[in-house]
Write a structure and sequence with these properties.
The protein is mainly α. 83% of the residues lie in helices and 0% in strands.
Length: 282
């Protein structure tokens, strides 16, 4: 729990700067769309200037923002409420949790963090003398992710039938095709591109071969708790490195995104102005 809370504080602290910058940028862009672009549009209409495609697109966006500006704060709230509603259903929660651990950049962080936490929880319970079935049940209930809950539930059922941990962990660590996850990839990532990215990840497992082999060795040697601790330490280290890398990448990424937006607006507004000046000079 302490490790999880430390990671949360680190991630929240790293996200404060980009969220503040993004919020201010949104306000500035809305002001440009509501005040600056309409003024340029009136100039272009007065001189009957033929507009490039970029300028037409910018004016269209400005018109939409001017007509539906009140939807800007309600869209994120609506998305949040929609996700909460979907997660009320078992299939919806599984689809959302699968999407969150597969999404680019942050998904890998969530997956590794969950794997580290569940491995350490199971290792602690086994080392404390808790029966393996009860330990697996506690680990499943405290995993916080439906994909891992399913995997540990299947391992629980397999052990009750006399099997080991490693084989069902390998078999059930690969989630099956989920239509809810497809919807989230389509809606939040990029339409058909998102669906294609999901299909490319369809055969990926949440537990890699190294973990399965270490669990197998731990079972055979009677050192399962030691192996689980080693797995958790390894994933904790990977999570720390990945978090630091993401924090260092956030600032240049924000600069690139905001620079691209500003560059688009400047080019879209000045292209017809240059043509207008050349026409008047001629």
């Amino acid at each position: 729990k302490e490790r999880a809370e430390t990671l949360k504080r680190k991630v929240k602290g790293a996200l404060i700067y980009p969220f503040v910058v993004f919020g201010v940028a949104v306000l500035i862009l809305v002001f440009i769309m509501l005040k600056i672009v309409p003024a340029f549009r009136k100039i272009f209409e007065d001189f009957d200037t033929e507009l490039p495609a970029m300028t037409e697109l910018l004016i269209t966006i400005s018109n939409l923002v001017g007509s539906y500006w009140f939807l800007i704060p309600t869209i994120p709230l609506g998305v949040w409420l929609f996700v909460k509603l979907v997660c009320k259903f078992k299939a919806g929660r599984f689809g959302w949790d699968l999407f969150t651990i597969q999404v680019p950049i942050f998904g890998q962080l969530l997956e590794k963090n969950t794997m580290a936490r569940t491995s350490r929880t199971l290792g602690t319970l086994v080392a404390s003398g808790v029966p393996i079935l009860e330990a697996l049940n506690i680990t499943r209930e405290t995993s916080g992710n439906a994909v891992f809950e399913r995997m540990y539930g299947k391992i629980y059922d397999s052990i009750r039938e006399g099997e080991s941990i490693a084989q069902p962990m390998k078999e059930f660590s690969k989630p099956k095709f989920n239509p809810v996850t497809v919807f989230f990839w389509f809606a939040f990532i990029g339409g058909p591109v998102g669906v294609l990215m999901y299909l490319m990840k369809l055969n990926s497992r949440v537990v890699d071969d190294l973990v399965i082999n270490m669990v197998d060795v731990g079972e055979e040697t009677g050192e399962l708790d030691t192996m689980l601790y080693k797995i958790a330490d390894n994933y904790d280290e990977e999570v720390t490195v990945l978090t630091e890398s993401l924090v260092s990448l956030l600032e240049p990424l924000m600069i690139i995104i905001l620079g691209g937006m500003v560059g688009f607006i400047v080019i879209a507004l000045f292209l017809p102005l240059i043509d207008l000046i050349q026409t008047l000079s001629g």
